[in-house]
Amino acid sequence: MSPDHLHSQPAPLRAAQYVRMSTEHQQYSTNNQADKILEYAQRRNIEIVRTYADEGKSGLSLDGRASLQKLIADAECGSADFTLVLVYDVSRWGRFQDADEAAFYEYKLKRKGILVAYVAEQFENDDSPVTTATPSSSRKSMSTTHTTCGSAKKALLPGWCRWPPS
Q1: What pTM did the predictor assign?
Q2: CATH number, residue 140
Q3: Which of 68, 90, 92, 152 is the most interior residue, by most CB within 10 Å?
Q4: What are the pLDDT digits (tens) for 62-89?
């Protein structure tokens, strides 16, 4: 083997990034999200080959989110040229009314060999025993404080409850 071959890095993982912002008043514009995703990717030898962006779109449903619909369709029809989707955080993937809906869309990608990674979360979506046993709907509730309608709400860990009930 040549000395150059011994020092070569493995080929980077190919990834798409998904960015979403529902209003212009949010802290993380799609450009800010993309910057943070790029930093994450560069630290991990990941090449971003495609961007799917839904600007000015609510995360409450898949309706009206043409880019997320296209991402899922690209994966399902086999035209995706990436094996990873990078998303800033779970709230950018969606704030679905049914918590299992986010997990369902992740699962549709996983069936096609594509994983979803949330770059700003405290957990890794790495198929480790903890993340495999914890569905994304639960990881969403375990993530950091979410802000809704201007008031901060702290999420409880799954299986925990407040006593006395409010």
Answers
A1: 0.71
A2: 3.40.50.1390
A3: 90
A4: 999 999 999 999 999 999 999 999 999 9
